[in-house]
């Protein structure tokens, strides 16, 4: 089964809204084992829509349209489907009743006059009630081809798709015989080109199992997608590939799927042994029990604390965060030595370490993190460029300082610096001092 | 001039990512007066891409492709453009040098071998340096048609579009005769339904000038779009509508266009008089000079400090942030009274105010902000639901505490709370004590 999506709406072509429907339907179709080769967006123009529909019939089995079902003259999807399939546009009394009920439920006694326009559908079409809005979903058969016309607002489209479209496709045996699963392996501390070099031969692993590389700022995802005729075979294939990836990229892998770096670090502090933390780091942080963290931030301005506290339950291990933007705060609150600031500058290895030690002492936490740098766009000096960041971790028996250089806007530098800092925590005590390999991915 | 966009990437057809590039380019093209009739998404499949390119040449003057410019074998955009335009795929030494420099700048001495793949372009093509990533933007002429091949990551695509593509289109006289401008009026402290009620009659202002409502979490945007044949007429129309909106929604408007709430608050602290700050608030903060801010956060966990420090130059007015997650930190560092925590609880008006005063005292800042609440999903007690947040502002002569209730996930509650806190700073000393009208938009 081959499907394609035609999104209808001038507002999409003007960029007023982002087409999240296409992404939603695409994801669902992949999981249903239905191949999708095209997404097309057309404005509220009948001639262009009719021609796009005809092209779709020539190359796909199922066509999904989204949008253009409203009550105004701009809403042309169903009339265009009629033109493309040579069907009559007919009034449906039952739909009109549904629409009237919809308005009554919302306290409007009289149905707005234009609303009845939404009771017209192609002759012979099936329709699905819309419990959120007024435009029903419509299913039109055209020879061997099937067209689903779905409303544009995601909160109307999604329920109709889940409640009506998926069961229909399954009942008619139109879904793939295949079971498709995905697993995302999350990597930090290595750029895309490096990851690519290491896994290149796996990228074309086979027709049933594929590996994709996706890049985020400061992170790389490897996504395994596998399909097979039974669930166990899929799991087995994914496991096999994951094992090989872990063998090659082990220490750079911090988690899978929806796990965030802050979640993994939190688990480690909470005394668990997440897979994404090196075993020596677990030993260093202490296996025996729960540890607490305190953070002193300069250039990241609270972002690391914010990420740590995005994890529910973080109050158990996060003791304190200090955003010490000024030298005054660094000296008075964190006990950073004035002399060091004068000698080495506020952005230096020595100050980062003093910050980590200072916040550890102040909060009586087990681990202190200190970070200082230049987020830009101003603040660079002769020897210290924008993006230069020092990150220090101090435990009872451990101290590490890393020097990093990031590229990007102020917010991008902050984000990358926070990721590198969380990664240094993840690998606590296992990383030798020195320059950090982190830099912007592209 | 007719344009169309072809987005390339199997990840789009699998729904792994949402196509924000198409929305971005569409919006920009509308502003340039270039008509856009089609957006198409194709997977990493050369045959289908070549056929989509040929179709695009048959109906459009300018074709934009996005994505598929990476260093891997999956990246097929430029080789497909070569096939569709009968051009040779050639190695460009200058591009290779740029890529090598990109890696050097990031501290990698050796360029990964595959990276050089990105130095291939169609023979005779122009290219635009990518200052963020490694894939250059490319401009290919094919008879009367023009193709721009742009990289997929938005942070690479946008700078190339702004710096290279727009000037090129303007220079070649390819932009439209209509001048279209937009202005966004940014509103905080009022939900969509309320805003809608107040401006409903303006929504259908006329064919040349339109007003749209766009909702973000905790904020509402009113977007004015106007087109005319000369720039002055457009400005006049926008100004007229803006004036009417300001008359009706005055105190809820904090800024326009790209101004963020933290930017406006920063400007106010820096001694400026931004339009989005009530004049009494300016008087309260003191017109005469620059003021400093310190923040004590509990439930927002550093998010407010992070937002404040996202503004370049914030080091001038932001003295210190304390993330006092634990009662211990609240008492020892901020001097919150133990008795009050016991009597009223850590999430209370009294503790919020003590936090604001405490951080003001500790940092010697002019203004202290304190915030405490329950971000969830755990932590609710009988009388204190998830989403309950107290926000306090303390100046030399001012103190205000607001009680708010937000709905949403942990991160959504944190975001709304940070917005309400920044808004309270914006209106410093002009808001009566009591319950806060902020709540989740829907």
In short:
Two copies of one chain form a homodimer. Chain A is of the alpha/beta class.
Shape-level CATH architecture of the largest domain in chain A: 3-Layer(aba) Sandwich
Percentage of residues assigned to helices of chain A: 25-40%
- Tell me the greatest interface: A-B, 92 and 91 residues
CATH topology of the largest domain in chain A: Molybdenum Cofactor Biosythetic Enzyme, Chain A
Numbering strands along the chain, what is their spatial order in the largest sheet of chain A? 2-1-3-8-7-6
Q: Give the tally of β-strands of chain A.
A: 18
**Which consecutive residue ranges of chain A, at least 5 long each, have pLDDT under 50?**
437-442
The CATH class of the largest domain in chain A is Alpha Beta
Q: Please state the CA-atom Rg of chain A, rounded to the nearest Å.
A: 28 Å
Domains of chain A, number: 3
- Termini of chain A, distance in Å? 35 Å
| Mean pLDDT over all positions of chain A | 90
* Major β-sheet annotation of chain A: 6 strands, mixed
Q: What is the subunit organization of this protein?
A: homodimer
Principal-axis shape of chain A equals elongated
CATH superfamily grouping of the largest domain in chain A: MoaB/Mog-like domain
Query: Count of DSSP helices of chain A?
Result: 15
Strand percentage of chain A: 15-25%
Structural class of the secondary structure composition of chain A?
alpha/beta
